[in-house]
Prior knowledge:
Layout (H helix, E strand, L loop, with lengths): L4 H66 L7 H17 L2 E4 L11 E8 L8 E6 L1 E4 L2 E4 L1 E7 L7
Parallel strand pairs: 2-6
Antiparallel strand pairs: 1-4, 3-6, 4-5
Amino acid sequence: MPSSPASDELTDLQERNEHLEDRYKRTLADLDNYRKRSAREVDQRVAESRESLVRDWLTAVDSVERALNMASADDSLLEGLRGVLEQMEAVLERQGVSRLGAADEPFDPERHEAVGVVEVAGVPEHTVVDVPRSGFALGDRVLRPAQVIVSRRGQSDEG
C-alpha cells in the first residue's frame, strides 16, 4: 500500500525532530564541557597568578631576613624588622604557604637543594645540618627548595 503524503510528511517531521533533538543534546553537552574547561582554565590562571605573587613576596621575606641577620643586637630597628617579618610570614601562612628546611631533618632532593656538605660527628649521613636559605611550599607544591648544608659520613665513621 503506497504511503500517503500526510504519512510521508509525518515521517519527515519525526526524522527532523530526532535530528534537532540530537543537535540540541550535543550542543548542551558541548556547552557543559566548555563551562567545565573554562572553569578549569580560570582556576589554573588564578593559581598561577597567586603563585607568582607568592614568589615575589618570598623575595621581600628574604630581604627582611637578611637585614635581621646583618643587624647588631643593639640596633633599634631590630624589633621592628622582627615584627614586619612576623606579619609577612602570617600573610604567607594564610595563603597556605609553609616554610621548608630545618636542621636535623633528612635530606629530601624534592624539597632541598644541597649547597654544601660537611662532616659532623654524631650526625647521621644525609641529614640537614644548616639552612642558609629557607624554601617554601604552597600546599604540596614546592615553590622554592630550601638551600641546605648536608652531613656526610666522616673518615672515622667508615667501617
